[in-house]
Amino acid sequence: MSTEKLALTTNSSARKPASAGGASNALAADLTRALGPRKVLSNLSERLNYRYDAIQFGATPLAVVLPESTEDVVAAVRASRAAGVPIVGRGAASGLSGGAAPLEPGLVISFTRMTRLTIHPERREATAQAGVVTLAVTEAAKPHGLIYPPDPASFRTSTIGGNLAENAGGPMCFKYGVSGDYVRALEFVDADGEVHRLTRDVFDLAGLLIGSEGTLGLITEATLRLIPPPKFTRTLMAHFPEVGACAEAVSRAIAAGAVPSKLEFMDRACTNAVEDYLHLGLPRDAEAVLLVDTDGEDLDTVQDELRLVEDACVASGGTVRRAATDDEGAQLWRARRSVSPALGRIRPQRMNEDIVVPRSALPDVVREIRALGDASPFRLVQFGHIGDGNLHPNILFDPRTEDAHAVHDLAHRIALVAIRHGGVLSGEHGIGSMKRDFMTDAVDPATMQALRGVKRALDPSGALNPGKILPAEEVMVDG
Amino acid sequence: MNNDIPVQALGGQGEVMAHAVDACVHCGFCLPACPTYALLGDEMDSPRGRIVLMKEVLEGGLPLADAAPHLDRCLGCQACVTACPSGVPYGELITAFRGWSEPQRQRSAFARSKRWAILKALPAPKLFSVAARVGQFAKPLAPVLPAALRGPLDLLPESVPAMQPSAKVTPARGVQRGRVAFLVGCAQQALAPNFNAATLRVLARNGIEVVIPDGQGCCGAAALHTGARDEALKLVRANLDAFNPDDFDAILSNAAGCGAGLKEYPMVLHGEPDETRAKAFAAKVMDISEYLNTLLQNGELEPPVPASRPLTVAYHDACHLAHAQGVRAAPRALLRAIPGVSVLEVPEGDLCCGSAGTYNLEQPELAGQLGARKAKNILSTTADLIASGNIGCHTQIQSHVRRQGSPTPVLHTIEILDRAYRGEL
Ligand SMILES: Cc1cc2nc3c(=O)[nH]c(=O)nc-3n(C[C@H](O)[C@H](O)[C@H](O)COP(=O)(O)OP(=O)(O)OC[C@H]3O[C@@H](n4cnc5c(N)ncnc54)[C@H](O)[C@@H]3O)c2cc1C
Ligand code: SF4
Ligand code: SF4
Fold first, then answer.
1. Most buried residue among A16, A119, A173, B347 by CB atoms closer than 10 A?
2. Are strands B250-253 and B285-287 parallel, antiparallel or unpaired?
3. What ipTM was estimated for this complex?
4. A465 in contact with ligand 1, CB cutoff 6 A
């Protein structure tokens, strides 16, 4: 990793602009002329706030646009093209890979005011502008007897645009799939400021935009599939004296034929961080806690499935507790959703991994990562959507007293464990700038060339979110 | 959040601020909780954004004047504190920051005199009462007045009742079960004297002797939260002198804002000689609903007379009860303890009503939008009564509910309990 990037990951005060206040640059002035002052932020105090996401601080943008319509986005893209500066899309900035943090000064387009949402119950669809908060889709669909299943832990905050750009998943994704699986159509603005409306046929261009982290186009609107909620849901919590045993229980349950709707795991440090926050009475001494939902139309089947999971947990040495009421189940899930931010109580900074490995390899991977953490000077914690083999090993550190290079090195070794076991670098948080350097380990050179070809086709000048996903190329100057 | 805040140069309050900034991991979980973010949809008017702005100012990278407009829009409702999984003490940060930054602020003569008037009038019940009466006459003129003057008028209830001084000691009725000290509050005495009267009656009925110690004054919260730290410190010390925590089972307040203010004393005096005294004091402070709920939970609450007909009550969570003090269950439990009463939850219940101390005066437009939204949400429950535990919310909600054409009574939780005891519900 370059020293400059290290500076960004560890030092919040990196790259402060010298000048303060005022629409001091031509870009901001142009934008204000095109869009009016309400939608353009040019003061330093305003712009400063658009240089970070939930993991990283980047460069202060030259201007920020808060569009209210696709036309506003088009105008903003055209103005920044004319000024020759890069564009970074931004939703709620809850991203965990540095995706929405600009690496160089340019334009940030923040979608938080594009919140138009329409439910079409007869088609079981929702049309959502990019800035609609994920939870709002389900809330709006509920009165019509429908839900929107993708449920990242950040669903109260994150936006549909950000979810699709990251192809976000959540606990429900084991049975119901990730954000991208619910997209019927997509509207996006390309690097030239052209508007495109895509469905999922012919070339699945929509699919290409999903998970592209704002590097191929700016998503302005999506048509999302809604489903009726399962009639019955049952929740179970199991705890284990050892992390590998927890992973074994998962493999065993799935091999036995269970298809739980959610399967989540957290290790002891996570459980304790959450317990400090919520005081739910979680087992503080257990090395691993597993949370499982089964759901469906028929209560007997739902119960049978839960029993399969329960048996698997017991067979792997776990202790099982079933949630007696829906409320208790909801509390347990609240615990899981709070893991990631609650870790902030332990150390101010963290390096967040997002690996996915084949389920059969889970017990080994979890143990190997545990061992790497134990051998390092850092606090390492693990949690994740274990049903999919999606793990989030997190290295917690204090940038003032601990060595960021060593953190990065440990993260790299964790990534290599995943790759060695046939896994990938990102399940849902994206590559962003945080894991960009690991891409060469994960992707062979020919595939990398194909990826670069796609990027060039859609964004020839490299204006869209430069420095993300694809490692810098010697021969290319600008992405 | 990593920072270079010069803690040494800032003293005790610097530590408070740096600790809060440290704790924030900029995850954004607080965004949906924030009323100003809900209205404005931009990062600078969100908790996370404000934390960054304060950090930048404290580090010297951003002029205070640039950050101020966004910090001024913060209601201090602390909804972000409830929402934050990392335990960032945002309330302490903004309070300490306002205290630190106020002396450096440049304000217009008009703004200065308005602030001065508020700070003088709020803690002086008699003065406030007179001012409120004058305002009463001006109210019909509101539509033609400039917004800056309309705000204060919105704060006033429909009629300003006569002041009712409370007895220094209210003896317990029947067997005495406890002895408490009571903070009578300031604006509230002028605007809603019945809150205190009802409080004394309900406590006495439950066998609690209530003492109103001499020398007590305003809790200091209004001064503190508008950045008038020296003013606030005077008030805080006066109260520490007036109340001896050892003499009482509890120190009670029936105004959420004041109660939260009293519980903040240790933070205000962090690193100062009076800190220990403040801790002993704060440990005894309880909201009236918390105190009565402990009686209820111990099976010691005098059973209220059943309501004459089934009644629904929309309970409004005052920010300074729910978020600042974490008191949510107690008032609901007390209301439910009245046979025939059921409690309804208000949609968007966690969103501030926009009253927040002097917010109506400082940010009339946002306060108005929030008030209207709150009134609409409350009225959507079609409840028979509206309850809250805070004078500020009370006047704000009443004013907006009336504006939306509803005659639904707005009462303090304790007034409803009092009515039940008197067989008037
Ligand atoms: C506590 C916590 C828990 C989390 N849990 C999960 C989880 O369970 N599952 C999961 O998948 N993620 C999780 N995340 C990560 C994050 O919430 C998701 O990646 C989310 O989808 C990001 O949405 P956002 O609106 O915040 O996007 P941002 O963070 O603002 O942006 C993310 C990326 O998308 C791009 N982008 C944003 N909007 C657009 C647009 N309209 N068009 C094009 N590009 C755009 C940005 O440039 C950036 O690259 C979690 C994050 C936190 C802080
Ligand atoms: S929720 Fe807490 S940690 Fe997260 S951004 Fe808000 S204040 Fe910071
Ligand atoms: S105190 Fe209230 S208004 Fe202020 S930042 Fe927190 S949630 Fe927003």
1. A173
2. parallel
3. 0.85
4. yes
